[in-house]
Design brief:
By secondary structure, this protein is of the alpha+beta class. Among the domains are: about 5-30 and about 60-170, Ku70, Chain: A, Domain 2, CATH 2.40.290.10; about 190-195 and about 240-275. The protein is built from seven helices and nine strands; from the N terminus they run ββββαββαβββααααα. Helix 3 (about 185-195) runs parallel beside helix 5. The longest helix is centred in the last third of the chain and has 33 residues, at about 245-275. The radius of gyration is 38 Å and the shape is extended.
């Protein structure tokens, strides 16, 4: 990995020199805009709206438009002169419980690696922070923008979670919040049952990006010149659910069956293991009983028994004939 920023953690009178690395990366499939006819790349030119001339990147500045339509031009020198005390420092403001920080504030994650001279104070702050059960609330300026962030420990490394400012989080102003919607106790109980049935430990490794995989398959098929098979869609209607209780009950039952299958496999494995550990005498006794039952069921029928059975069938047929004759008379 390549560091994208160098600075220091300021913890009281302690300074810890660190390097900043991106902790995440996008795995999405990237595309170019191309001409449909020949696949040629589509290029964009930076053209000045006033004179219509193409402008080199070195001559481009940032402009802030006033309500009057006038533009205030800001150069790199203007940004460099801004009084940011956190330009190369991660200032620890306070230590707060993690559960008090709403995840909606988190924007992007970074790893912090200590320089050789800062390894010991880095480890010291790491261990103290882990024992406290809290996270450090810090302030940092990155890419000419000052932000709040939290500092926490993950796998022995500090993770800097960049945060949004409170005025950057929108209020959830939706009409249904003002409606008086009644939820029946039975529905609530069934919904809670569904949550309990689908509860488990967080394991992100079991999930994958199906869309990205399908996209890769499509691209490979285009390369190989073969036709892509469209998977069949599961049958079902897409209408509005009328009976909420029935839908919840069906969901719980489906979830239980899904979990029950795995439980049945485990139970079967345990029964198989139990049979394997059965003692020798018990196996012999069971085998003897099985042999006796098989011999009894396979014992041939004697001649006398066969004769009696045939005579009985003949008498039954004669009686039936006499009955039919009387009915017709």
């Amino acid at each position: 990995m390549r560091s994208i920023w160098k600075g220091a953690i300021s913890f009281g009178l302690v300074t810890i020199p660190v390097k900043l690395y991106s902790a995440t990366e996008e795995r999405d499939v990237s595309f170019h805009q191309v001409h449909r006819e020949d696949g040629g790349r589509i290029r964009y030119k930076r053209v000045c709206q006033t004179d219509g001339e193409e402008v080199p990147y070195s001559d481009i500045a940032k402009g802030y438009e006033l309500p009057s339509g006038e533009v205030v031009v800001l150069t790199d020198e203007d940004f460099a002169d801004l009084p940011l005390t956190t330009s190369r420092t991660i200032d620890v403001l306070e230590f707060v419980p993690l559960e008090q920080v709403d995840p909606i504030y988190f924007a992007k994650s970074y790893y912090l690696e200590p320089d050789a001279a800062g390894a010991k104070p880095y480890v010291l702050l790491r261990e103290a922070l882990e024992k406290s059960g809290r996270v450090a609330l810090v302030k940092i300026a990155l890419r000419q923008r000052e932000s709040l962030a939290t500092l926490r420990v993950r796998d022995g490394v500090f993770v800097l979670e960049m945060m949004l400012w409170p005025d950057e989080v929108r209020e959830a102003e939706f009409g249904f919040l003002d409606d008086d919607i009644d939820v029946r106790p039975q529905e609530l109980q069934m919904a809670e049952s569904l949550i309990d049935t689908l509860s488990g430990d967080f394991s992100p490794e079991q999930y994958s990006d199906n869309y990205r995989e399908a996209l890769q398959t499509l691209i490979e098929a285009k390369v190989e010149g073969r036709e892509v098979v469209q998977p069949e869609q599961p049958a079902g209607d897409s209408g509005t659910v009328v009976d909420l209780m029935a839908a919840l009950r069906a969901s719980v039952e489906a979830a239980r069956q899904g979990r029950g299958g795995a439980a049945a496999d485990d139970a079967g494995s345990r029964r198989t293991a139990s049979k394997k550990t059965t003692s020798g005498p018990a196996k012999k006794t069971a085998a003897k009983s099985t042999k006796k039952a098989a011999a009894k069921s396979a014992k041939p029928v004697g001649k006398k028994s066969a004769a009696k059975s045939a005579a009985k069938k003949s008498a039954t047929k004669s009686a039936a004939k006499r009955t039919n004759t009387r009915k017709s008379a």
